[in-house]
TrEMBL record:
The keyword Transferase is annotated on this UniProt entry: no
Highest taxon of the lineage: Bacteria
Origin organism lineage: Bacteria, Pseudomonadati, Pseudomonadota, Gammaproteobacteria, Alteromonadales
PROSITE patterns: PROKAR_LIPOPROTEIN
Protein's name in the database: DUF1566 domain-containing protein
Pfam families per the UniProt record, alphabetical: K319L-like_PKD (PF22352), Lcl_C (PF07603)
Signal peptide: 1-23
Length: 565
């Protein structure tokens, strides 16, 4: 028993001694412990595409502050990087298959010790289904989603999208289907981004429903449905268009290019009627024809008219459209119109008004006013021309006078020589070369060109002017050659018979069967210059109405002019 107590006491002393050694820092030395500076980036893991992943590094035995630097291979954005924070975050990229990324962390402590570690992050795809979208244009003047009967509508699915698409195109298939209402799909192919339908014509309004299923590149699908209201045949109003706004002068034609149509055959006939508001009254050729014209009223100041095309179909549906017309007073004329009142199409030339080919010469200007009998004239003349006959003394003659020597153009103020057929000074068959000592373009011309013929000594323009002035034609002594513009102003392009001039006021111009009837102007031509001298002069052909430059020695007719505005 005593021996047992002794042994127990010895054991207690040993244990106490051991405890005292531990408390005092005894045990293994620092050389026996593993105190290597190290970092642990974590274990390998996986995450779905476009998800947020938190990265955490654990450091062992650092000396002072630690700096962390995260990186990824292949590269991706890690936030934060290169800071003293032990954690960071990243957002995984889009993936179409499992993709491995190596995530690494490098650490450095205050003592300059470095360590690194990495793990593998496997990014797995997670497909977000696409979104199907159906769009259709709104029909004018109807509620959204409501359409007339018998019209074509395009259902557009091209704006369908896939928010996580990684390839192009994002949507690989479209599939349309009608799920309600009378059959409206007219296309044999319902697998396109858009679908054209024709709304049915029925006695009652109905609802059409269509579905669109789209599939993305990863095989996910989405379906959307859209419903539309279709009016009955009797509820479908006609479509009416009054045409374009216009601005015209008094007496010119207003093109009323109206149209009234319906998508429902039973709505015909459609009755139309033109009406107007404003402070002047246009003369409408046919108030019940949608496609017609009106003569603009005579106004003293700028006047605005509103013209309305009213339409009523066989169901009693009424609709109106309008256009605005600004009418201005016809300006005081200082030049002549062309004489052209015919209007052209692609294949014809006729006197009928052509709304489908607007803006023609035959729809505008003084010639049209004359055709509508609203053009005020001091004298008379074909189309828009306004001439007065003058006798040998320069006095006005009655319009019916058979004998007269000159003609006054009441538009331009020019007074023109009238040719004769008596073999005298002003005979229509005489021909002259061009000659002028001044204003000649550097070349005076030819005093007596070949093939010239006249009743004076030298057959040239200068001598002819001198002879006519010496004779005092119509009591005037200031006759001259006309300019290009002046001579062209009496050409009558709308005249069916030849020559192209009003023969009542300009008789004896020349033979209607002649190939050309050239008349000299006063203007040398820049074409045909030799040694800086113009060898040619402009002339006008009264057969074709065209101009051209002729050599100054050519034998050409003359019609002198004087005065003017």
């Amino acid at each position: 028993m005593a021996f047992y107590r002794w042994c127990r006491l010895i054991s207690m002393h040993v244990i106490l001694a051991s405890c005292m050694l531990v408390a005092c820092g005894g045990g293994l030395s620092s050389e026996d412990r593993d105190e290597t500076f190290a970092v642990n980036a974590g274990r390998d893991r996986s995450a779905t595409e476009q998800s947020e992943v938190t990265l955490t590094a654990q450091v062992s035995y650092p000396s002072g502050d630690v700096t962390y630097s995260w990186s990824a291979s292949p590269a991706m954005l890690i936030t934060p990087s290169d800071t003293t924070a032990s954690s960071a975050t990243l957002t995984t990229p889009v993936a179409t298959e499992d993709t491995d990324y190596v995530i690494s962390v490098n650490v450095t402590d205050s003592a300059g010790q470095t360590a690194s570690d990495s793990f593998t992050l496997t990014v797995t795809p997670e497909n977000v289904p696409p979104t199907a979208v159906i769009a259709a244009s709104q029909w004018p003047e109807l509620a959204v989603g409501t359409y007339p009967a018998g019209v074509a509508i395009t259902l557009d699915g091209s704006n369908s999208f896939d928010e996580d698409a990684s390839t192009t195109p994002a949507i690989v298939t479209w599939q349309w289907q009608q799920t309600n209402g009378d059959d409206a799909i007219i296309s044999n192919d319902t697998s396109t981004p858009s679908l054209v339908i024709t709304t049915p014509i029925a006695d009652d309004r109905q609802t059409l429903t269509f579905s669109l299923t789209v599939t993305d590149a990863e095989g996910a699908t989405n379906t959307v449905s859209q419903s539309y209201t279709v009016l009955s045949a009797s509820e479908t109003t006609p479509t009416v268009s009054a045409g374009s706004d216009q601005a015209v002068f008094s007496g010119e034609r207003i093109a009323l290019r109206g149209a009234a149509t319906s998508s429902v055959p039973a709505a015909y006939p459609i009755d139309t009627l033109w009406t107007f508001t404003g402070n002047a009254e246009p003369v409408i050729a046919s108030v019940t024809a949608a496609d017609t014209y009106a003569v603009a009223p005579q106004v003293d100041t700028e006047t605005t008219l509103q013209l309305y095309l009213n339409a009523q179909d066989s169901f009693g549906n009424e609709i109106t459209d309008s256009l605005t017309v600004v009418v201005r007073p016809f300006p005081v004329r200082v030049i002549n119109d062309t004489g052209m009142t015919l209007q052209a199409t692609n294949t014809t030339l006729a006197s009928a008004h052509q709304n489908a080919w607007p803006g023609q010469d035959g729809q505008r200007g003084a010639d049209v006013l004359a055709q509508s009998a609203v053009l005020a004239k001091a004298g008379r003349g074909e189309a828009g021309f306004d001439f007065t006959k003058l006798n040998s003394n320069g006095d006005e003659e009655d319009d019916e006078a058979a004998q007269f020597s000159c003609v006054r153009d009441n538009v331009t103020g020019l007074v023109w020589e009238v040719k004769t057929n008596d073999g005298g000074l002003r005979d229509l068959d005489h021909r002259y070369s061009w000659y002028a000592e001044e204003n000649n373009g550097g070349a005076a011309g030819n005093i007596n060109g070949p093939d010239t013929v006249c009743s004076i000594t030298s057959c040239n323009t200068a001598d002819y002017i001198s002879a006519v002035n010496a004779a005092g034609l119509c009591g005037f002594y200031d006759w001259r050659l006309p300019t290009h513009q002046e001579l062209l102003s009496i050409v009558h392009f709308g005249r069916a018979a030849l020559p192209r001039v009003d023969s009542r006021y300009f008789p004896n111009t020349g033979s209607a069967t002649a190939t050309t009837l050239w008349y000299w102007t006063s203007q040398p031509g820049a074409d045909g210059v030799s040694n800086d001298a113009a060898q040619n002069t402009w002339a006008i052909d009264f057969i074709s109405g065209v101009d051209n430059f002729l050599n100054k020695s050519d034998p050409v007719a003359i019609r002198l002019v004087r005065a003017g505005r």
